[in-house]
Amino acid sequence: MCPSHPSSETTWRLLLTVTLNLPLGSVLAEPAPADVQPSDLAGLMQGIGGMRRLPVSGVQMVQSGDQVFFVSANGRYAFLGLGFDLWHGTRLTSLAEADRLMQRIDRSRLKLAGEDLGALDLGTGDGEVLVFVDPRCPQCAALLDRIRALSEVVLKTYRFRLIPLPVLSQASQREVLALNCLAETDQPGAIAALLEHRTDVLSPATGRCGQGPIQRALVTAHLLGIERVPFLIAPDGRLQSGAPADLSAWLAGEEGA
Length: 257
Description:
The protein is of the alpha+beta class. It has helices at 8-20, 41-46, 95-102, 138-148, 152-157, 170-185, 187-195, 211-224, 247-251; strands at 48-53, 59-64, 67-72, 78-79, 84-85, 90-91, 120-122, 127-133, 158-164, 231-233, 239-241. A five-stranded mixed beta sheet has the order 7-9-8-10-11.
């Protein structure tokens, strides 16, 4: 990420807001297991069937037979007990289930308002596709060209919410600020500048113009674990890091897209 990270206080406020607003009653209905000791983990360690790094800093999920537990990245701490994916409202019972859940979000539970993140819209359909892009990213520029080239039928089926996310450099930050600032008074002009790759010639933002959306976009990217751009979220919650090889097939949810 570029140097102007949102503060940790801002990040945790949003994280707590997201978590506390989720319906958790049915999720937490099961009791925690009885007390265990470090020696109780010895048998589990002997039968490890796989490990998976969860999309959160420093935690891995481990499966041993039918039992799952969690360890810190350096192997110092182990957590044996119930684990939940609160964004999906479900208990983590296996690596296979964790893999399935990590590849998507439940958009009906985890509300992501594109307009709060500085989204610039292309298309008028009901199927909302979130697309995080850095204006100085060549792969993002190529994806934007592919989206522009989609047929009218596709653009009437989907609405691509293009979210500028400065992750590459200070220049990225300046251009996204200028783009967000322009969008406050001239949405069509901002959309054209992004799609035509002209963000580098926009007038610089002054004061606090454009800063709100950039901060919220950076916090959201941190919470979602976005490590590269472009990054897409399909209407059904599927996550895609990097541009899909076949955009139309990916939109349709076809395997191997």
